[in-house]
Amino acid sequence: MTPEELHRAIERGDSVRLLDVRNREEYDSWHVSGDSVETSVVPYARFMTADVQGTVGTLASEHDLSETERTVVVCGRGEASDYVAELLRDEGFDAENLERGMRGWARVYVASELSAAADGTERSSVAHSPSGGATVLQYRRPSSGCLSYLVVSDGEAAVVDPLRAFADRYVEDARERGAELRYALDTHVHADHVSGVRDVADLTGADVVVPEGARERGLTYDGADEYDVRVVADGAEIRVGDATLTAVGAPGHTSEMTAYRLSDLLFSGDSLFVESVARPDLEAGDEGAPAAARRLHRTLTETYAAFDDEMTVAPGHYSDAADAAADGTYAATLGTLRGRLSALSMDEEAFVAHVLENMPPRPANYETLVAANLGREAVDDEEAFELELGPNNCAATA
């Protein structure tokens, strides 16, 4: 089974039976999930032993695998799982291998148009569209929960928070819609994946757009002579065809975090998600986290207070627990989030305690990823892909 086929089955809500043959620690840190997914974790070594002892069928039955139910076997690269799937088939089980394993799963990238209201009601006219009539694609990477966006208007396009691994995808999608990709924007210096703004610019000549605070963190684009870098502050405007993206300073997750407003749509980056708020410790560590949390509280309760309940939040990440909207995207109105997230109504001290109390582990390799995104460390495509494998963990609460 290809990773894309597995993803489509999960999206449809099909019952999916997985057998993960990695170690429990590997599974716990990162795995395929979904409402319709049931997984048994049985390390590969146990199947090797069972093969020698002739007890593969017994081992499978002990973990509730059925001969009449299709089982998809998963490992890191699709090699150990291929061996186990063959053992199971020899015992009469309907078993398939997940092609390329979790690394193949990390290549799944899905795009959906933001065409519905966050409450699931279809927008009936441009006047009531949160994007003000521009076409907006939301890209999601199920393996990590990363979200990126393509904004298309009147023959021009901009991509927000692009991933390096999929730079050519944004270019192709813009061309399919008759648009020239003019801008590649980062909302902040990412700590969970390698930014694709340089790569998009290399492919298209698009201007790179970064928050001004990123320069203060040491961001450099040395050697980037083939494209322009535009540094924006709060209130700056980026024209994309007939649409306007307005920078909204939103510090907290990082000091330079900048959201972008498009009509009644807010690309919130890593400031506010549909199920949580941002973690504040990835720039200044544990020592600087309380001060960053206070800045984040001001962003959420003061800066975002200027937006009414109808503003639709399009975040930079989503988690397994997040519910998709009617159009399959992950977005919600501020009114919905104000009712859903208790953190948005807390006073400053309660908020700081809340976000610092139960943060999940930091993203894997986050220090190296930050260095790469600042331009301090060069990584090739394969190394970049390896560095960002795993969950993003950019939210304050799991």
Automatic annotation (TrEMBL):
| CDD domains for the chain | POD-like_MBL-fold (cd07724)
Source organism's superkingdom?
Answer: Archaea
Q: Which UniProt keywords apply?
A: Metal-binding
What is an example of a GO molecular function annotated in this UniProt entry? sulfur dioxygenase activity
Q: Where is the Rhodanese domain?
A: 12-114
Q: Name one GO biological process term.
A: hydrogen sulfide metabolic process
What the entry lists under InterPro entries is as follows: Metallo-B-lactamas (IPR001279), Mito_Persulfide_Diox (IPR051682), POD-like_MBL-fold (IPR044528), Rhodanese-like_dom (IPR001763), Rhodanese-like_dom_sf (IPR036873), RibonucZ/Hydroxyglut_hydro (IPR036866)
Name used for this protein in its record: Glyoxylase, beta-lactamase superfamily II
Organism (species): Halopelagius inordinatus
